[in-house]
Amino acid sequence: MLKTLISLGLWALAGWLFGSWLGETSGWIVFTLGLIIMILVSGVQHSQITRWVRNIEQPPPPSVGPWDNVLAAVYRKLRKDETTIRDLERNVQGIMQAAEALPDGAVTLNDRMQITWCNQRGSEHLGLNLETDRDLSILNILRAPAFAKYARQSRWPEPLLLHLNRNGNPRAIMVQLTRYGYRHFLLVSRDVTQLEKLETTRKDFVANVSHELRTPLTVLAGFLETLRDTPDEALTQEQKAHYSNLMMDETRRMQAIVDDLLTLSALESTPAVSGKPVDVAALINSALEQAKALSDGQHQFIENIDNRISLIGSEAELDSAFSNLLTNAVRYTMPDGIITVSWYITERGTACYSVQDTGIGISSKDLSRITERFYRVEGGRPRKPGRTGLGLAISKHVALRHDAELEIESRLGAGSLFSIEFPVERVINKT
Ligand code: ADP
After folding, report:
1. CA 222 to ligand 1 center in whole angstroms
2. Closest approach atom of ligand 1 to CA 359
3. pLDDT tens for residues 186-212?
4. Which helix (H) or strand (E) holds 246?
5. CA-to-CA distance for 288 and 280, rounded, in angstroms?
6. What is the pLDDT of residues 296-353, one digit of tens each?
């Protein structure tokens, strides 16, 4: 404003000077010329400002007369706002990245429980697709009646467990609602499928152990009661011996279960040691002796054992795995069946222990679960005497602790092949 007044004053002064020198008319002409120049300059400045406004991130034009201070102030404010917005954007981005990195799912809902946002985990847990499901009510997505009831509560002190089906896979998802901001809701989800499985396994395990021990205990208690309630002279020496033997059998059975449970627990709870060289051929030969004693000449044994191959591992663990597979072959193969034991180097340089039998075989349905503790094959095949139902579970663990896997091929009625292939790093080949 001051600059404009000064310019106006200067042109008026020039007009007055010219007027007093060349006459009044010349003075007015100079003054009018001055006004026209001022208007033109102002027009040019105006168009410079208009051009700058269209491109406001650029610095303002260097000189626009009376507008210089205004533009400088506007530009300063703009730059400050820009920095603030950039900081805010960075913060929002950081928060979004943190929300994405959450191990839990998070879904934000508006006051009508419509989805406004969710992180990747949330969309995986609840099967959401933000592009198509945004603004849809969560009640239309999670259609479980239990969730509808849960969502109607006014407070959610406890989470809710939902069993959902994700692309054909059953999943257990724990969800919890909370309020935030002004009438907004946050739905937090967590996949607890694995935990639930572990809990089921634990419960099954306790039930199985109790069941396995209850039978011999009941038999034992029955005999002890009979002995207590029967007068000594009413039993012959032979009867007493018979009862004692039966009680001994049941006690041994319980002892075997407890021993196997302790072995399994030790295998699970102690870290695997790399071990030392084990003479596998000697181990297999001693396991074969036990198996032949059990077979009592009823089976034919074929032995393909390469005694030049040793293994780095735990002798005691390998012994229990190898002899369990062999004795199983004897127990589950009819008399006259053939049992083939092999210990050889494969083309890949790995070492393989295998036991093949022509026995009763295992159905494909049971095959995937046969190594579970206490698993009984379908059809209630009775457990053979002296068997605990833990042998294959132990063998599987031993294999894993030696960086190997227990492979089973079998067909019902057509025999089975159990094999453990040990990695090259554990093999000592003296050939
Ligand atoms: P068990 O003490 O009952 O033998 P295992 O864990 O060693 O327990 O075996 C589990 C089940 O697998 C057995 O009860 C049996 O039904 C089946 N099984 C194991 N080995 C064989 C085999 N060689 N042939 C057929 N079935 C077998």
Report:
1. 29
2. 24
3. 999 999 999 999 998 889 888 888 988
4. helix 237-269
5. 12
6. 999 999 999 999 999 999 999 999 999 999 999 999 999 999 999 999 999 999 999 9
